């Protein structure tokens, strides 16, 4: 399966839309906006004579990945090398305003996604699409691989009443799409009058994982250091909606999880009863250096994925929640808002995109019955929407 994939950024010079020659552009990027030669998009765009960069924009964690933890805002500034303004889309606003887009013709988006609905970069794209539509600007998306493949989908489809910055529109948790494909879906269904160009990749196949592409892995955010992290993330991120640590503040975020009240051996024994495919659990103790339980000894486990094609990250995380809920009914708790700018809805509900998951865990519903209803949602979404926008086989 290994190949030499070229991203939209790699193909920029030959694939830039002819009608946008000489455009004044805003560039929405982050640390992983690199080409296959590890050159950052900002440097490539600044050297090109096809357009002029008017401003840079950065999503959550900053244009340089400078904010380590989640939900830490950052403010814009002026780049000291070029004098160009850098606007924050994770601070006072998450949506570009008219002042930011003044004098621009095009917003170029080059963001490495992780393949999970609650990773906020795709929603920064969606809000940029809203602004550009309102102001008559064009969006150009430089496509990149889905690091966990484009052939597997999993988890509930977001219900509109649970829309938030971790899911603005209907999409499964593990969506199996590239950011370019998501842009096509968003435009067609929600922003049909937006002028959109997607620069597709060359050489990418749907069954490819990131380490099949020949591209260098560059963390798109500080707590997404490896492909292994992105493999478990579409599930373990649910723990952000609870009083369990999702491993932030350790060297293996999202692979390690637990809490001070958890006994590792009891937890792993209970998880074994679910017979989860593609993974084994190692009991351990850990002490986070920041975030939940910083400086406190936690009991828990590490997920070791032994077959990533069979592994189901969302189902695995639901099993973890059920296990801890049942083992520690008087201590386990759902986290209260606010969370990612949502002040009223429970974090677990906006992460899962429904209140049904939380309610059925509380009621003790069997895992297989829970998986059955979200699989039914997946089949419907795939048939009505997803398949229409897939660019690659």
Provide structural commentary.
This protein is α/β, with parallel strands linked by helices and 393 residues long. The protein folds into 2 domains: 209 residues, Uncharacterised protein PF07075, DUF1343 (Rossmann fold, 3-Layer(aba) Sandwich), CATH 3.40.50; 128 residues, Aspartate Aminotransferase, domain 1, CATH 3.90.1150. The protein is 27% helix and 16% strand. Strand 5, helix 4 and strand 6 form a beta-alpha-beta unit. Helix 4 crosses helix 5 and helix 6 packs across helix 8. The longest helix has 18 residues.
Q: What structural class results from the helix and strand content?
A: alpha/beta
- The overall strand count is 12
Provide the CATH architecture of the largest domain. Answer: 3-Layer(aba) Sandwich
Shape: globular
Q: List the domain count as a whole number.
A: 2
Helix amount: 25-40%
Radius of gyration: 21 Å
Q: Which blocks of ≥5 consecutive residues have pLDDT under 50?
A: none
> Which topology of the largest domain does CATH recognise?
Rossmann fold
Question: What's the name of the CATH homologous superfamily of the largest domain?
Answer: Uncharacterised protein PF07075, DUF1343
Can you identify the CATH class of the largest domain?
Alpha Beta
The order of strands across the largest sheet is 3-4-2-1-5-6-9
Order of helices and strands: HEHEEEHEHEEEHEHEHEEHHHH
User: CA-to-CA gap between the ends?
Assistant: 13 Å
What does the average pLDDT come to? 96
